[in-house]
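Researcher: I'd like a structural prediction for the single chain below. Treat it as a standalone chain; there are no partners to consider.
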Amino acid sequence: MTDSRALMHQAERQCQRRGVRFTPIRRRVLEMIADSPGGLKAYDLLDRLATEHAAARPPTIYRALEFLIDQGLVHRIESLNAYVACPCPEHAHGFQLLICRHCGRVEELHLDDVNAQLAQRARDLGFRVDRQTIELLGHCEACLQAVAGKQ
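Model: Treating it as a single chain, here is the predicted structure.
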C-alpha cells in the first residue's frame, strides 16, 4: 500500500510545479486509490465518492482519473480495468506492474533496461510506441506462503 500522506504531499508539489489545479475531487479520488492495496475500479470510486459528494457522477470520476493519469499520479491496470496510485510519480520512464491474482496487491517496478530494449526494438521495426503497459499476473509472496502453510 502506498503511503497516502507522502503521496498527497508529493502530488500537491508536482501539480503546483506544473501549474495545474489539484482540486478537492481530484485529491479525494487519489486518496481513495492510494489507500487501497490493489486497484480500484471507476464505479467503486464513484460509489465511495457519492457518499461524500451527492452530485458525483461517472464523468466526475473519469475526469479526475484522466487528470491523475496525465499527471503520472495514477496508473490504469489494463487487465483489471482498475486504477492504482503511482508510488513514484517523478519517475518519468516506463514501468511494470506485478499483480497478485489472489489478494489484488499491486507493486510497481522500474526496470529501465527492459523499457530501453522494448523501445529500441520498436524503433528498429519502425514502430512508434504511444503507451506501454506491462502487467505480470501471479501470486505475491504472502499469498504463496499462506497457501504453503495450509499444506
